[in-house]
Amino acid sequence: MKLYKKGDASSYTLGVFPTIELLKQRPQNVKRVVVHSSIEQNKGYPVIQTLCQKHHIPIDIHDRTIEKLSPKNNCYAIGVFETYQSCLQNDNHVVLEHPMDMGNMGTMMRTMLGFGYKNLVIIKPAVDIFDPKVIRASMGAIFHLNAVYYDSFEDYYQQFSNRKFYPFMLEGATNIHQVLPEKPYSLILGNESHGLDDHYLNYGQSIFIPHSEDIDSLNLSMALGIALFHFSKEQWEGKEVLKENI
Amino acid sequence: MKLYKKGDASSYTLGVFPTIELLKQRPQNVKRVVVHSSIEQNKGYPVIQTLCQKHHIPIDIHDRTIEKLSPKNNCYAIGVFETYQSCLQNDNHVVLEHPMDMGNMGTMMRTMLGFGYKNLVIIKPAVDIFDPKVIRASMGAIFHLNAVYYDSFEDYYQQFSNRKFYPFMLEGATNIHQVLPEKPYSLILGNESHGLDDHYLNYGQSIFIPHSEDIDSLNLSMALGIALFHFSKEQWEGKEVLKENI
Lengths: 246, 246
Hints:
alpha/beta, methyltransferase activity (chains A, B), TrmH family RNA methyltransferase (chains A, B), Alpha/beta_knot_MTases (chains A, B), transferase (chains A, B), Alpha/beta knot, SpoU_MeTrfase (chains A, B)
């Protein structure tokens, strides 16, 4: 086993929780699971064992592999999987232009899943979503999503032009609080440093998230989280309980 | 100059942008500014020079100090300041119980400032807000805020009991979409791993942010950002332009 490099044909999860997510969502792509000999006490281990047995996936106990791939962390399990291609559904999309930060990408994937968004478009150049750092930051949310790369926004637009586009821009025309979403739609956000450039004002209804002049802009994952919270409001505002108080 | 250690009586900003924020917001606390000899081309340097002149703050050119305090980064300026105590205003508060992640803390400060919240209560044990990593992640937003530590939530509560409390909890009683804020209020959020424990159900109106069961919880800074976006809605929903399109 080698450390992951951008574009490798296989990658791996680091940790029990994302490994379970991988086994639940993408068992067909898993080659094997490597565990540390001290995993026995971990309450996630029986879950891993059951899932591996069900899908005929081998489990190897191999401390040195774990220590090599995750030298700094308390990591008990690694799920090795073949990277895969996904297909976009004609549902609401999140479009990220040139996202470059692995931690941000993982956080955004987790937030998307939290608000029920499963289709992610990434305009290249961009971070490699199968980097173990992205997977870890996503806490396994990545395995629930359809994430598809495009070489340019225009390539994506040609395929999905028949929908509503909402580019998020500091110079956007409409205050987010005043938007009533028309489905299906694509929420488009620029990258960490530059945002979207002016030509996105030509696509659909450009939106700004109002904030004080004391800051230049919200950070990218925060802006996306707020956008998803607002745009999915209708789906969630009637919910009466999130978790039962046991 | 030594690397900052928790609780030191002085700390420092890393970078031109947060140094300017420091000089603008807290000039009375600045002892000196250290710059790298290659700062001349940086367009922020004249701003630093003007502010230092105005407030009689010395500027030292000293490359080795910069390289020592910021070995990995392209850092051109460091603002050395005495740490200070702030006072809470009887306005809306954000209360964070045991926040432990420096990057998260900085992001939350920046988001608070973005939505017009300037009063931050931190329940110990917690991250040291004057750590240069927090300052950097806040992009200088810290210097706009009144951040005050308390030993326990009860200490804080005794001083500010005459207001509305909104603890954010997975088991919260009320969906955030259905809350009409009563001012002044305190939004209370737990830490990255544990959230708030059940006894917070006894304070004010507990709130949950609805999300799918595919994730355990939103991350802390995301939950706070969404809370601030929703609670400050009235202030921002009439805004017609964020930035002029030049």
